[in-house]
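[Meeting: bench + compute handoff]

Bench side (C.D.) handed over the final construct sequence. Compute side (W.E.) agreed to return the predicted structure before the next meeting so the bench team could plan truncations. Sequence as handed over:
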Amino acid sequence: MEYTFDQVADMLDEMAEAFPPVFFEELNGGILLQEEAKLDPMFPEGEVYFMGEYVQDGYLGRYINLYYGSFLASARNEDWDEETWKDELFATVAHEFTHHMEETAGLHALDDQDAEFLRRAREEYGGPL
């Protein structure tokens, strides 16, 4: 199953409304849906995608980027159904919100977990690429 960019944007708008307003404090750029896919350059092309990222920019502030193209590529590769689309979108938004909340509190536990996950994944692919 595939969703268009506009359909995913609508789903994300609806999901974002379900999060408490406190999650949006100091997230001055909000949640942005980007059209492109974002490949992880440490893995073979087409194998691993960034679904989203929390950004802190000295000029633009704090915001969350989600990559429609990454979701679409994963949906095609794994034959996602409607429920999987929603689960993956929600999990990614929640994950990026966690980065935001931890950063504003001066914590980094999720960053450490992400680094460990990537380290293990790279080991499975035969080390740094």
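W.E. noted at the follow-up: Strands lie at 31-34, 38-39, 49-50, 52-57, 61-67. C.D. will use this when planning the next construct.
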